[in-house]
Recover the amino acids of this structure.
């Protein structure tokens, strides 16, 4: 993900070709600055993979301190190695797409040795971040090929989304994955799904397409405080 394009690599980061996650990750220059400082101090010691893992924790703790709110903490074992190659095809094939069915999402997780709990827990990462209009437009206008909106989507929320995501055009217009607290790591992602305000189809299916994943979604708001 962090590798630049080269003669032998077409990276997800540098690709100009359409892909589901295009422009979904930013801040590469911050990682580059951290890596440069670490290389100057201790060359060849700290990987970019470890930098990302540590940065995620630091940002979470910084948010808790500045907003004076509670939140999670986790220990981070270090020693990850960086990849020497990148595959945009592998990224597109292995990362769940916003319109994937639940069985497809579960299969992609299972390939990595992950289970249903992991599917729901890691989907909770959508408590932070943005999505492009093109990734959820079908939910607003033609979810099932009948010209109608997704019936599981809250009506007022759907109307709000249509204001910035028209039937055509505006593909790159951005919307928060968590409409309530888009810059805070909390449990509103799961509360939103329960209220019919999950943005992506891949969020909504966790509640509506499996009793097992639905039970986990319903338990998450009280389990994560």
């Amino acid at each position: 993900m962090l590798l630049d394009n080269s003669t032998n690599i077409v990276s997800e980061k540098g690709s100009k070709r359409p892909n589901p996650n295009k422009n979904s990750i930013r801040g590469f220059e911050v990682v580059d600055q951290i890596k440069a400082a670490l290389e100057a101090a201790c060359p060849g010691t700290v990987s970019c993979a470890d930098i990302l893992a540590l940065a995620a924790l630091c940002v979470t703790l910084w948010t808790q301190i500045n907003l004076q709110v509670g939140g999670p903490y986790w220990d981070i074992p270090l020693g990850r190695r960086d990849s020497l190659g990148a595959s945009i095809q592998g990224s597109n094939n292995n990362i769940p797409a916003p319109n994937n069915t639940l069985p497809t999402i579960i299969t992609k997780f299972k390939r990595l040795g992950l289970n249903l709990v992991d599917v729901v827990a890691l989907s909770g990462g959508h408590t932070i971040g943005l999505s492009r209009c093109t990734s959820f437009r079908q939910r607003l206008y033609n979810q099932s090929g009948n010209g109608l909106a997704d019936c599981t989507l809250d009506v007022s929320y759907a109307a709000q989304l249509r204001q910035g995501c028209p039937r055509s055009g505006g593909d790159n217009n951005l919307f928060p994955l968590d409409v309530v607290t888009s810059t805070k790591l909390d449990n509103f992602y799961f509360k939103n799904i329960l209220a019919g305000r999950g943005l992506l189809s891949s969020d909504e299916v966790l509640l509506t397409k499996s009793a097992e994943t639905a039970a986990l979604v319903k338990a998450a708001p009280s389990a994560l405080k």
User: Anything to note?
Assistant: The longest strand covers residues 130-132. The two ends are 31 Å apart (CA to CA). The beta strands are 130-132, 174-176. The chain has ten helices and two strands.
